Each structure stands twice: as C-alpha cells, then as structure tokens.
Amino acid sequence: MTGSVGAPAERREGHEKVTGTARYAAEFHSPGRAQAWPVPARVARGRVSGVDTAAALAEPGVIAVLTHENAPRLAEPDDPTLAVLQNARVPHRGWFVALVVAETLEAARAGASAVRVSYETEDHDVALTASHPGVYVPEEANGGHPAVREQGDPDRAFGSSATRVDVAYRVPPLHNHPMEPHTSTARWEDGRLTVHTSSQGTGAVLAVLAGLFGLPKERVVVTAEHVGGGFGSKGTPRPDVVLAAMAARATGRPVTVALPRRFLPAVVGHRAPTLHRLRLGSDADGRLTSLVHEVTTHTSRIKEFVEQAAVPARVMYAAPHSRTLHRVAALDVPSPSWMRAPGEAPGMYALESAMDELATELGMDPVELRVRNEPDVEPDSGRPFSSRHLVECLREGARRFGWDGRDPRPGTRRDGSVLLGTGVAAATYPVMVGPSTAAARALPDGTFLVRINATDIGTGARTVLAQIGADALGVPLDRVRIEVGSTELPSAPLAGGSSGTASWGWAVHDACAGLARRLAEHTGAVPEQGLDVRADTRGAADAESDFARHAFGAHFAEVRVDTVSGEVRVGRLLGVYAVGRVLNARTARSQFVGGMTMGLGMALTEGSTMDAAFGDFTESDLASYHVPVHADVTGIEAHWLDEEDSRLNPMGSKGIGEIGIVGTAAAIGNAVHHATGVRFRELPLTPDRVLTGLLDGRTRKAV
Predict the structure, then answer these.
(1) Cis before residue 684, ω within 30 degrees of 0?
(2) Which residues, in sequence order, are CB contacts of 387 under 8 Å at separation 6+?
(3) Does the active-site annotation cover 658?
(4) What global pTM score does this model have?
(5) Which of 352, 396, 658, 682 is catalytic?
(6) pLDDT tens digits, one per residue of 274-318
C-alpha cells in the first residue's frame, strides 16, 4: 500500500478550472453550431390552441421554431417530463411549448420573445394543505420505501406516555441551483448522435436518448467532461438534452440548449414542500415509548414523486411503538425530484426539532436524550448495524463545541439587543452502492491508466479514484491517470445518493488489484500495447446485506438573534461524522462544509412560494431565491471519527456528499429556540418571521 488513500491530495482538475480550460457542456464548439432558447407556457393548466411563429422566424439569425406541430416525434418515454413538444397539453406553468433555434444565443432569445402562443385554459390547483381533498397514501415513497410502516400500537402508547410532544413543522419548496445551469450540446453525423451534457450520469442519458430516437445504443455517445454541480437535479436526463437532440436533428446542425436559470424551477425538479406532524411520547426518564412521523407533500399530475421524509425516523431511535406515514396530493405543479439528501434533509429537520422539544418538556439535555434512545439494531428492519457511532459523534462534538458549559435555560444569554443560543441535532444517511465496471492498464513507461464512466460533479472523483487505484497497485499517485465522464468508457452508475465513490471505487480497486496480480506474474517488459484488466462488481456490490448500513453524524450550532431586526446569524457550525474510511481528507472536508453551508441556507434563507393565482414559483432566480454567500458562513468546522467498517466495500468507505446537510437546519433552529425561548416551526427563519415571533412572545406553529 502506498498510503494514497486518506491523504489530502489536491484535485486533479483544479488547474483546468481556475484557468478556464475545463470544458463544460456549452463549450464544445463545432462548425455551424446553433443556439436554442425554449419558450415556457404562461398558463398553469390547459392546452396550446395556436402558435404564431411568423414574427420569430422574421428575426435576424433565427433558423427554425419547433413546436408540437413540427418537432421530431419521439417514442413515449418512461419519464413523462421528457415528452417535450409532443402534444398540445400544458400540465403546469413553465412547461416548454416551443424552441427557437438561431445562429446566436441573442438571436434565439429574441426569437423566443417573438413567439405568440394562445391557450385554452383550465382551472388549476397548486395549493398544498394537510387536509387537501385529493391527498392519498401512495404505495411507495421515493427510493422504493413503503409509504407506511407501523410497529405496535403507537396511538395507545402515545396517549399513555408520561411526557408527550405533538407538533407540526413545514419545509417550503426548495430549488436546486447548480452553478452551471442544465445545458446540452448535440450533433448528428451519419445517423450517430453525440451529446455533451451537464449530467450526473451519462449512462442514463444514453439509454433515454436511444429509446426516444429509436437508435441502437452503440450509435449514441454521451459525455460529461466537467459538470458544474447538480445536487440531484441532473441525476437523470432533463428536457435540455432532449431539446438539443431534437433541434440538431431538425436543423441538421449542432445545437446547444442552455436553460436560463429562471426556467429551472419549473422543468428540472425541486424539493417538494413537506408538512410534518410529529408525536413523540416518552417515559419519565426520556425513553421513547411512541414515535409517529406523518408527512404530507405534493407531486405533479404527470409524474408521481413522493419525498421520503418520514423514512429517517425508521432508523434513528429506539421506540417500541411507531408509525411513519407518507401522504401526497397530485397538483398542477412542476414535477418534484431529487435534491441533496432527499427525504433525510426535511425529515431530519422535523424529527430533530421534535426531539429538542421533547428534551425541553423533560428538562433533559438534548444530547443525553438522543444517547438514551440509541437502538441496538435498526428499529425498522431489526438488522444489526454494520457500524453505528452516533453516540461517539455526539460526545466528540459536545467536547469540541464546549457543550458542557451551556446554560440550558432559553433566552438567558444576551449581548445588548442580540440573543445568543446553541443547538444540536443528529444526522444520518443510508449507505448505497451499485455495480460498476472499470478497466486498468499498465503502460510500458511505468504509468497506469484507469478508465471508468464515473462523473465528477465537482466532488473530486477523479482524484479519489486515482488514490484508490494507486493504493491497489502499490504505486505512487502520480503514476496513475484517470479517464471519466463518457459512455465510451466502462459503464458505471450515476453520481447520486452519495453512492458514486463507493460504487466506482469498488470497481477501480478490483481492476487495479487484479492488474497488480497480473504484473506480479508477468515476466519481461510490459508490451507496447500495455497489459489490461477489467473488473465488474455485479453480484457483489448489489448483493443483499445482512446489515443495516448508514452513515451518522452530529451537528452543533451557535446563533446570534437580533431582537431589533429579527436577523439570525450563525457564528459557529460544527459537524462530526462517522462515515467509514475517509478517502481524501481535503475533498471530504470540502463536501462536509458544502453540505453544512447548504443546510444553513435551508435554515435561514432558502425557500420558495407557489403563487396560487398564477401557478408558478415566485422565487425563480438567485435574486429572489437566496443561497448563502461567503459573508453568511463564518466559523464552520467538519471533523470525523476513524471508523472502521469491513461490511461496506473494499475501501471501507461510506458516502459523504449528502450527510452534511442532514440535521444542520434543525441544529440552527434548535439554537434559535435556545436563544429566544420561541419555537419556530416553519423554515426558513427569515427576519420577518423571527421578528413576528419575538413580538408575539409565544410558540408559533407552522401553517
């Protein structure tokens, strides 16, 4: 072993990115390339009754205008959000009803503004309430989780509990706003389709495009050389890649579709709003006797997606009686989808806030309450944990944070007009891994080439995979090269669910370990063409496990609440994690801090409003949807335990991309309660909401 794994190696693509030579999906120039601009529907529900393209076609530089009347016909997709320009139906505001193709981006935009669309409108319904008449219990929530799980008699147990908490929370719609908007460049040559796209998984894009256009898969190539973030919204193909391929086929020219940021909330998915009801009952010593977590959310009428926000409650705490339930209403809204830590982020905000409320009712330290309810096995399945060091995370976090010096009384620390408080919350995220393939080659010059269709979405995947390969080969890191991001490479799953490195790394490890064995047996020089070994982890990576595999963590927050303005400032954030073996200390810390920063935004600034009259999201760009900036993130620390777990993969690693956001919002909300004595149950904690609560001087419930 060379010791590459675990070292804080610098990211290999860093120089390309800071010098501007890294190529993103819009930067693949081809002779004759055109630009395209979509036209979104301006009604919330109905049908297109007519499209007047004359003025658009008269605009200088406009090449074509595609509508449902003249666009290439597609096979019916499994994902109905990709059936763009195929019929006159408008399922929600923002649905694309035309596409203008022009010589330049400016001409395409001008042409799009000149398209005149008329509609036959229908009544729409976009307002989610817990009592909505259309609410139903689905068969499954996202990820294949059963919508309902029940053990014992939670209602009876709750009614007889010594201490009870019955509370409601609301998390608003949230939006993926990656730095690089969804973008694709497509070209057709001799019946072959080549696409450069901003995607978390090019293999899925290839499969979808081949199906839509009736092509053999070997006639489609998809690359994602560099990706400017995704946060789940690029996990599967989005309309941009379909529109680019359609426009390129219709015009016979390469075409780039770069979605304007204002269009993203309507067409690339969002985190659906979630309405939570938590009922926690405990005995006098704080041991849970009953746990009920019920979630109501929305989905669109064209595609069911149910945020699995009650699922974390099936993992976290020992309770002999429990019920976790998901309900959903199909509304005339854009289709929700994955956003960083789907289910866990909103679900753990509600659960960990309720646990803090229970600790207050009991007069118990919130860290000790969590420790007291530590389960021996996974509560839902009864399986033993492969490793679970939540208690150690809480203890270590409390030590680093100085928790022992905390005055538990709310509203007691003051600095002039500013109230100070601290809060804690736990975190969890499942360990996921999928089968993958990889190829490793030894070259005559003593270097090695590893090839795998992984996707580096900004996490440093190239670097970490090279470290895994170097360790398996027993060579220095600088002798290993990595190729990723193309369907012409050995197939691999997408970057999502914190499963990328665990999945790809397994195959890279096996390929490089196999190559090392072959080299040990090889006599003489390495031939000019090199020596190759290929690995496929099917049957191993996707095998059922007898263990429940999860990552865990603990978040601590210190806040300052201005009683004059209502502004909340987070002075300190600390995260301590148990995530198996950390493969690169530098990139791991970056991922943890990034997730915690996103959790801070969820707590204080991020939130969207569905306009009931117009049927669209009011906050549709970064001028109105406020993400944290550098000035919002001051003292933020991430640490991890040296956790060993041999039941995961050859590296002993767990995913880290999402656990940082899980629990952060709850820790901040709990700190705000500790500072003010007022319990806020609706995010985000904006100054107007906080100031109103302070003036009321009483607990406010979410609506």
Answers:
(1) yes
(2) 578, 580, 643, 644, 645, 647
(3) yes
(4) 0.97
(5) 658
(6) 999 999 999 999 999 999 999 999 999 999 999 999 999 999 999
